[in-house]
């Protein structure tokens, strides 16, 4: 067995709320120890620029092009990731000896049917910044981890299931379970022992709720699900929205952040709802989309473990339990990290990439064979 490496993961998800930084020690198969995790929240102007970048990315056909505001957004995103790392090392100077850093970048477009996925982030520029922050021989940077999967015909998402499988090994005897990440888009992993995990995006998670609130109020999200709890779900609207063909396709499958925007605008009638009812109905849609996956799984899961920003939404958690009939717990409740789990996953994936291990599988992204990925930039190449 290879020795564990000290690894940091950097993740900025489709909720566009900031950058997560997390450290683990891993050999790419198991997790030897968990280090600290921190979230560095985007300033409002940074978040707004990222929303504009997503809008400008809609017509892209070349993943290397940076039309419109995208070039500026990439520079700013890379700079913010460097600042997040610097802040992390300032608080935890002992971890400047980190050996590998996994850098996800900021997804602005995901069109696997066109073999196209775009994550903003200048890997060489961040590698140069990392060189000045780390000690010893420096850290290897692994980035652009989705591209190889998409180029090979896979969905390019989700990539975290192999990390979910590693974590599940620490929960005792194998039992079928689901691990759900609730970011802008939801994604779920079915784990049962050491078999290849089964995974897919489930549907909208926080993105539609956040965007609806942004249009109606000055609130960035529904904190603790309080607004949804005060509203009434329009079940007929949820049933109508759940007729979308995506929900009736088996895994693997993936989504762009904005894939359901037009569908919801056309069929939900949100303009006629008050804010609380609109938020409640969109929250119920997020829960129902997770429930729709159960029909495609080999066995009924015994537990649903929830991570990501949506795990703090108590109303969404209650709806998940009601619509799945499965025990729902947060990642924190099983000894994992609700907020840092996805960043940890990209640290884990970076180590796997260094060792040539698969990041994705036919059962997780639809890639033809288990496939590694990522661009590897070692310390001597960062100049």
Automatic annotation (TrEMBL):
Gene3D superfamilies referenced in this protein's UniProt entry, alphabetically: 3.30.420.40
Pathway listed: Cell wall biogenesis; peptidoglycan recycling; Amino-sugar metabolism; 1,6-anhydro-N-acetylmuramate degradation
Class in the EC hierarchy, top level: transferase
Protein name listed in UniProt: Anhydro-N-acetylmuramic acid kinase
Classification via SUPFAM superfamilies: Actin-like ATPase domain (SSF53067)
Binding residue positions for ATP: 13-20
GO biological process: 1,6-anhydro-N-acetyl-beta-muramic acid catabolic process; amino sugar metabolic process; peptidoglycan turnover
Superkingdom of the source species: Bacteria
Matches recorded under HAMAP family: AnhMurNAc_kinase
Role played: Catalyzes the specific phosphorylation of 1,6-anhydro-N-acetylmuramic acid (anhMurNAc) with the simultaneous cleavage of the 1,6-anhydro ring, generating MurNAc-6-P. Is required for the utilization of anhMurNAc either imported from the medium or derived from its own cell wall murein, and thus plays a role in cell wall recycling.
E.C. code: 2.7.1.170
Family: Belongs to the anhydro-N-acetylmuramic acid kinase family.
Species: Ancylobacter aquaticus
InterPro entries, A to Z: Anhydro_N_Ac-Mur_kinase, ATPase_NBD
Keywords on record: ATP-binding, Carbohydrate metabolism, Kinase, Nucleotide-binding, Transferase
Coiled coil: none
Gene Ontology molecular function terms on file: ATP binding; kinase activity; phosphotransferase activity, alcohol group as acceptor
Catalyzed reactions per annotation: 1,6-anhydro-N-acetyl-beta-muramate + ATP + H2O = N-acetyl-D-muramate 6-phosphate + ADP + H(+)
């Amino acid at each position: 067995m290879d020795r564990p490496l000290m690894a940091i993961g950097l993740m900025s998800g489709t909720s566009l709320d900031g950058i997560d930084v997390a450290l683990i020690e891993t050999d790419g198969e198991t997790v030897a120890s968990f280090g600290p995790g921190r979230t560095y929240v985007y300033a409002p102007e940074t978040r707004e620029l990222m929303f504009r970048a997503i809008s400008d990315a809609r017509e892209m056909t070349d993943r290397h092009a940076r039309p419109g505001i995208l070039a500026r957004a990439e520079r700013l995103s890379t700079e913010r990731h460097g600042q997040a790392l610097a802040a992390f090392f300032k608080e935890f100077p002992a971890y400047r000896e980190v050996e590998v850093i996994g850098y996800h970048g900021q997804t602005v477009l995901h069109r696997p049917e066109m073999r196209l996925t775009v994550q903003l982030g200048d890997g060489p520029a961040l590698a140069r910044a990392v060189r000045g922050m780390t000690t010893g021989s420096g850290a290897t940077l692994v980035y652009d981890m989705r591209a190889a999967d998409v180029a090979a015909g896979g969905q390019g998402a989700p990539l975290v299931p192999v990390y979910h499988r590693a974590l599940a090994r620490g929960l005792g005897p194998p039992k079928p379970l689901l691990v759900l990440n609730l970011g802008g888009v939801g994604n779920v992993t079915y784990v049962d022992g050491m078999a290849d995990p089964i995974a897919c995006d489930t549907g909208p998670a926080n993105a539609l709720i956040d965007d609806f609130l942004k249009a109606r109020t000055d609130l960035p999200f529904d904190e603790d699900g309080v607004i949804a709890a005060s509203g009434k779900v329009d079940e007929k609207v949820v049933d109508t929205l759940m007729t979308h063909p995506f929900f009736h396709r088996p895994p693997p499958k993936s989504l762009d952040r904005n894939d359901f925007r037009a569908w919801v605008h056309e069929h939900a009638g949100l303009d006629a709802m008050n804010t609380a009812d609109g938020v409640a109905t969109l929250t119920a849609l997020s829960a129902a989309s997770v429930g729709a996956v159960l029909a495609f799984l080999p066995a009924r899961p015994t537990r649903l473990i929830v991570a990501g920003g949506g795990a703090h939404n108590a109303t969404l958690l209650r709806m998940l339990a009601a619509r799945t009939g499965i025990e729902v717990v947060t990642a924190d409740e099983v000894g994992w990290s609700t907020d840092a789990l996805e960043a940890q996953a990209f640290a884990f994936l970076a180590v796997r990439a260094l060792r040539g291990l698969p990041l994705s599988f036919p059962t997780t992204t639809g890639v033809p064979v288990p496939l590694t990925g990522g661009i590897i930039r070692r310390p001597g190449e960062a100049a």
